Amino acid sequence: MIARFKRPHAIPRQRFLERKRLNMELEPEVHAHAHKSGHGLIDTILALSALVLSVASMIIAIQNHHAMKELVTANSWPYLQHDSSNVGNNGDAVVLLSVANAGVGPALIEKFTVSYQGAPIKDTADLLRHCCVKDAGDLQTLRGHLITGSMNGRAIAAKDSANFLKMQKPDQEPLLKWWDALDRARRSVSTAVCYRSVLGDRWITTSDDFRPRQVDSCDALSGPAFAE
């Protein structure tokens, strides 16, 4: 007679799944930690080095820009000086009032002013009435022997000059008397000029102070612009 063994009762599937879930919840959670290899420190050093190099390069570029700007400014800087003389280049007697560019770049005159004994002068006729002649007819005669030039808006190249009043010494009266009066009066004539360079920088110089003063606008030069 063959004995038969009974198979254990199978655990229902739902109960099996619940037991498995319970076991999973009871098992401790294991966290994986990356091993420290030193690469993070190296990356930080490299990033800081790149930042320092970038900042240094920017500073050097700014310094080079300023240096180049100063070099260009120096190579194009105009410097207008005021001249009053009674002797010409050939040694002849001539009353000469002029402005000369002693700089290395061209100058564009934006405003030119004249005063006589501290009083503003608007044009050549006004100057002659103050210094030399009173009669209108004499004024016209004297003006006919003058060489004048407009200064406002004029460009003066480096090492060049521009005259705004010139009179050759005559050999007859009454022109000789007027020439002598004009020669004495030129010592009381003061001039001022506001000019700009090709880079747009503006300066003011005067016959009383040749030192250039940089300004933002030629409105800084007071007084009426002198007309021819």
Describe the structure.
- The protein is of the alpha+beta class.
- 34% of the residues lie in helices and 25% in strands.
- Strand 9 (202-206) and strand 10 form a beta hairpin.
- The longest helix has 37 residues, at 39-75.
- Mean pLDDT is 84; it is low at 33-37.
What is this structure, in a nutshell?
The protein is an alpha+beta fold and 228 residues long.
SSE diagram, text form:
Elements: H1 13-26, H2 39-75, E1 80-87, E2 93-101, E3 107-116, E4 119-121, H3 124-131, H4 136-143, E5 147-148, E6 155-156, E7 161-168, H5 175-185, E8 189-196, E9 202-206, E10 213-215
Antiparallel strand pairs: 1-2, 2-7, 3-4, 3-6, 3-8, 5-7, 8-9, 9-10
Using brief descriptors, characterize the structure shown.
alpha+beta, single chain, rod-shaped, 4-stranded antiparallel beta sheet, 25% strand
Q: Kindly state the mean pLDDT as a whole number?
A: 84
Rounded to the nearest angstrom, the distance between the terminal CA atoms is 150 Å
What is the SS-derived class?
Answer: alpha+beta
Report the C-alpha radius of gyration, rounded.
45 Å
Tell me how many strands there are.
10
Low-confidence runs: 33-37
Number of helices: 5
The amount of helix comes to 25-40%
Strand content: 25-35%
